[in-house]
Design goal:
870 residues
Length: 870
């Protein structure tokens, strides 16, 4: 018998060499092609008995080459075995659909390669022999039997009606029946009812051009279990009538492949359900249904506990039995855990008739005829048991490999579903809630407000919105640190929640701002009552790091529909009311009024006008002299004024806060500094003495990264080398960021700029910090100066001023007292050693042209004094 020909199609010479080496000694001849195109050209001529085809090649891939070979009648009957490095179900199904007979995976085992090649060649040889019509029936029968009885596949012959005429000895190993037990029986007696029609259609339809067909079906074994067979059939027809005379079939066991494909199909379906966010009960039902299809003789059930909710899916178990399992869920899961710890495998086998954990369920177990249970635990990401999936059986068999794989897959997918749901819930919570207080955030607040107003529209009831600010939170945060500030916000949130109903919503809008939705109110006044109760809640101190602190809040309220019918309108009006509460001194609640809206419009108009004040030349500088104990002017404080063309002189108390809120204060501050420098240079050019000028700096200006650079550029443009500029900063400003303050003050010193702390004693400060700061002057706030003449507080006021002067002297700082208006104040301040005085007693703030005569008078007095001395 001539050697059979094997065509190897692979673009890698190494594969050709490995295949030939693996099949050394086999009675075969090798033909090598290194591309699909080359193979398609030579295969019809060479007529190989077996084709070993690489899946991935340059040019045509293996699937396309296979399709074209099967489409050619000259090569259609050559079995094709794919050589591939991948093993995905999708690729296998694609190859089988293209007509491949088998797969060999790279790197291949030589023994497996030899066995598969032998089997394929034997099958090919058998099918070729069956096709040799020219041979006599005796010769064909003999050859058929020789090959069939030595084939690992189950070879069989059938009449057109399905009666078995012959079965090869391999049938005993594959399906458990001897050939004699199959012969004379109808194939429909063994094939699963769901696939009988499919098999009949294949057998009767395999009489086309190729007279071959392939069909996969379930075959009932002697044990009663079904296995999957893949049968390649060939029909023999009567040449005279064309009718089917006989059907020859070669079947192989593909159970493992089908089980894997089924599991992969279930895996894909369940993972898709997980990504779609389907309920856990739906996912569990899908897995239970799959387990029962894998093990039809078993009753499948799944039970798991997530977030305190029991999910139990057991469609075929009696409801009484399911309820009993739920009642003993914890005990059963605990028992499964004990058995799992004792087992080397994840699969747990329970004897339902003898296991003590099932004692209370035994009557129902006996009634259902159940004997054993195969289970696997569902474990969370923390390895905690979250439930179990079980197969209840009426026998005491050990779990099959297929059942074990299905249980493992179900357990893993359920755990993934639980973790995905938890992660999804966590992400949703994080997206809609504040990370610090766990309260709803701005987005969730807006959504709930929309729903609340819609409900109020339907019910005709009122609703309210409260906006809440923690008073002076920034000072506390800057003084005690961000951790203390965070703790304060959490305690504030807890206190606010205590005063609200379950139907109300408390949200953190950002920073120290909270918001409340009051639903289902009887009338608009209820919102104001709740707002006042929230303020009252903060009358008691808050304990922050073992320190009692009195923290207050300001609340603004607006009600639906009185103060607005849309969420944005309500929030805007509540915000105006909050501004009203702050303007009223904080620590109070204010409801929205129509006048507040008008005030807001005025504020916006004033801000718009302030933006044009500098380019329109509307700002002015007034200068207030500072004098020593002899009345000599030793300095000037530059004070900005706004001369509006229609509003007249706008008070600083009115436009400075607007500038700070809008950020315009930076531009205003730069103009003040530049104008003070210009005026100083002009006075010097006029021959007047160089008098130091003080300029106030806001917190917003000082915090700017370009602050020092801005100061330096003004000094450079001024061109004055002598020290002339003093900056006045509040102590609270310096305490906000001590490291930044020390750095910037040190750089100001390098520029020969004096620094004074303005309004000393009215803010938060630390004596330890004062020692670290490079300062020159302390300014006593005018409120202390006024107290000198106060009948009620004179003693306290004088004591405080004395302490400030003593502190300044001990630190080597000069002292300026502002707001001096009476002779008694002047005398007291001089008596305790105050260096410089400032106030209306000496001069009101004046324009530069009004200050010039004072400076000239002082210049003449100095000249006269020097003349007398000479």
């Amino acid at each position: 018998m001539p050697n059979q020909k094997i065509l190897i199609i692979d673009d890698s010479p190494d594969i050709h060499e490995l295949v030939q080496l693996g099949l050394a000694g086999e009675p075969v001849d090798f033909i090598s092609c290194f591309s699909g195109e080359e193979a398609l050209a030579v295969a019809p001529t060479l007529r190989p008995d077996l084709i070993l085809l690489d899946v991935e090649m340059t040019g045509l891939d293996g699937f396309e080459v296979c399709r074209q070979l099967k489409a050619n009648p000259l090569t259609a009957d050559a079995p094709i075995v794919f050589l591939t490095g991948a093993s995905t179900t999708e690729e296998k199904l694609r190859g089988l659909a293209a007509g491949a007979a088998d797969y060999v995976f790279k790197p291949f085992d030589p023994a497996e390669l030899r066995a598969r090649v032998r089997a394929s060649l034997n099958t090919k040889r058998l099918m070729d022999l069956l096709a040799q019509k020219a041979l006599t029936l005796q010769q064909s029968e003999e050859r058929f039997r020789v090959l069939a009885e030595n084939s690992s596949d189950m070879i069989s012959r059938y009449r057109p009606d399905g009666l078995c005429l012959y079965a090869s000895p391999a049938s005993a190993a594959i399906v458990g029946y001897t050939p004699d037990e199959l012969v004379g029986r109808m194939f429909s007696d063994f094939i699963h009812p769901d696939e009988v029609a499919q098999v009949v259609a294949c057998y009767n339809g395999s009489c086309g051009a190729t007279r071959r067909g392939t069909v996969a079906y379930r075959f009932r074994k002697r044990s009663g279990q079904y296995l999957w067979l893949e049968s390649t059939c060939q029909t023999l027809t009567d040449p005279r009538t064309g009718s089917i005379r006989e059907i020859h079939a070669s079947a192989r066991d593909i159970t493992a492949r089908k089980e894997m494909e089924f599991r992969e199909q279930i895996r894909g379906q369940v993972l898709e359900m997980i990504t779609e966010g389907r309920p856990l009960n739906d996912i569990l039902h899908q897995l239970i249904d799959a387990a029962e299809r894998e093990e039809p003789d078993a009753l499948a059930a799944g039970v798991m506990l997530t977030d305190g909710v029991v999910h139990h899916c057991a469609p075929r178990l009696p409801s009484a039995f399911s309820s009993a399992i739920e009642r003993q869920l914890y005990d059963l899961v605990r028992r499964f855990g004990v058995l799992g710890a004792q087992s080397k495998d994840r699969i747990i086998t329970c004897d339902l008739l003898n296991d003590p954990a099932w004692r209370d369920l035994r009557p129902t177990v006996l009634e259902l005829g159940l004997r054993s249970c195969w289970s696997i635990l569902i474990r969370s990401s923390h390895r905690d048991s979250a439930g179990a999936i079980s197969l209840y059986r009426r026998d005491d068999l050990e779990p099959s490999e297929a059942a074990s794989e299905m249980l493992r897959l179900a357990s893993d997918l359920t755990a993934i579903a639980i973790e995905h749901r938890q992660l999804t819930d966590q992400l949703i919570f994080q997206a809609k809630n504040d990370a610090l207080t766990q309260l709803p955030n701005r987005a969730l607040f807006a959504d709930r407000l929309q729903h609340t107003l819609a409900g109020s529209t339907r019910s005709g009831r009122a609703a309210g919105v409260l906006l809440i600010d923690v008073d002076r939170f920034k000072q506390i945060n800057d003084t005690y640190g961000h951790q203390a500030g965070d703790e304060l916000l959490c305690q504030a949130a807890h206190r606010l929640n205590k005063r609200l109903r379950s139907c109300d919503t408390l949200a953190r809008m950002g920073g120290d701002e909270f918001a409340v939705i009051l639903a289902d109110l009887s009338n608009a006044a209820d919102a104001e009552i709740v707002a006042k109760s929230l303020v009252e809640e903060f009358k008691q101190p808050i304990v922050l790091r073992d320190r009692e602190m009195f923290v207050t809040i300001s609340v603004g309220s607006a009600t639906y529909p009185t103060d607005g019918k849309e969420p944005t309108e309500l929030l805007k009006n509540a915000d105006l009311a909050l501004y009203g509460a702050k303007d009223a001194g904080r620590n109070c609640a204010k409801p929205f009024t129509a006048e507040m809206s008008e005030g807001a419009m005025d504020r916006m108009e004033l801000e718009r006008a302030l933006r044009q004040a500098i380019p329109n030349g509307e700002l002015r500088l007034h200068y207030q002299p500072k004098v020593d104990r002899h009345g000599i002017i030793v300095g000037l404080e530059a004070l900005v004024r706004w001369q509006h063309p229609t509003l007249g002189l706008v008070p600083p108390a009115k436009f400075i806060p607007i500038g700070e809120d809008s950020g315009l204060i930076v531009q205003v501050g730069h103009w003040v500094l530049a104008e003070a420098a210009r005026q100083t240079r002009e006075w010097v050019a006029m021959g007047l003495p160089l008098i130091p000028i003080s300029v106030n700096v806001s917190a917003f200006e000082f915090a700017q990264p370009e602050f020092i650079l801005s100061i330096s550029s003004v000094l450079d443009s001024c061109g004055l080398k002598t020290r002339w500029l003093e900056l006045e900063l509040t102590e609270t400003l310096l305490m906000r960021n001590m490291r930044d303050a020390v750095d910037k003050l040190s750089r100001l010193k390098q520029l020969k700029i004096n620094v004074a702390i303005d309004d000393f004693g009215t803010g938060y400060s630390s004596l330890a910090y004062l020692q670290r700061l490079p300062l020159d002057t302390l300014k006593v706030d005018q409120s202390f100066t006024r107290s000198i003449d106060s009948a009620a507080n004179a003693a306290n006021g004088r004591a405080i001023i004395g302490a400030i002067v003593a502190l300044a002297k001990s630190l080597g700082l000069s002292v300026v007292a502002e707001g001096v208006e009476t002779e008694s104040q002047r005398q007291f301040l001089l008596d305790i050693g105050c260096d410089v005085l400032q106030g209306y007693l000496f001069s009101a703030p004046r324009l530069a042209e009004e200050i010039e005569p004072l400076l000239r008078k002082q210049l003449r007095a100095d000249a006269l004094s020097r003349t007398k001395c000479a």
